[in-house]
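task queued by scheduler; priority normal; single chain, no ligands, no partner chains; default sampling; output format set to structure tokens
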Amino acid sequence: MIKTNRAQLVMQSIQGSIAPPVKSHGFSVDYQGRPFILPGVGGITYNIKVGDPACGWAADHVEPGVSMAANIDNRRDGKNSGLNVLACVGNKARVISGDAKGALGTVTGTHGGIEHVLVDFADDDLEKMAIDDKILIKAYGQGLRLCDYPDVTAFNIDPDLLEKLGLVEKGGRLLVPVAAKIPGKLMGSGIGSSDVASGDYDITTQDPEEVKRLGLDRLKLGDLVALEDADNTYGRSYRNGAMSIGVVVHSDCLLAGHGPGVTTVLTSVKPVLEPVVEAGANIAAYLGIGRSRA
């Protein structure tokens, strides 16, 4: 088992409400100049879950399961930042109001810009939920360190999930299971942000032939992916030889510079993280949620 400082981590309550879908206008324009109107961020998405395809939906930036925010009327509010920064993939969530009160869920990712935290719940619980229902999360994971790997920085991951990833120590490196490797040249929206502990950044998919050649059209929501030449230590940037590991959190997009979003969980500028492509490297399988829910 990888030695961590989990005994020193703080578990803290954070809270928000199910956020309604929002749109600033009717039509958006895709990367080929074509207008479109499609479902996107927010609300309760009943038929898309972690473990489902990230591409191919008649949608743009759609979020699996429940989308929540602390202040739905002011996305720049510090409450939204607190929720987005402190929530970690794998954290436990509980509905505390409405007909689904008491339902338990799991955080599957964070989405920047809209400042949403995404949570998976069972189908029966989704049917009882409504916009504005309140959800409490036991935030646990920020500050996590891998004690024997000081060159690796961890973000946004519950230590229980880290233990389930099946990391293997080999010759001073950490072998990490991933569903795919993403060339750094494909990383788009969100790059340049100095805040890796919140939100995500996108795998651009505006070159369909390259996407198909790399097999990225088969990505699934919840997949672990390796971002090659991507340094996420103090922000999101290209750096030759760096490696970051993240989780696919939202669907493909039609806008230029966008695509499936990735929330970072591990990063290093040194050759410590070694991705190993494995079928089934997905948080749905590790946590028994989404399409892997019993």
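post-processing summary
- Helices lie at 78-86, 123-126, 159-164, 208-213, 283-287.
- The chain has five helices and 18 strands.
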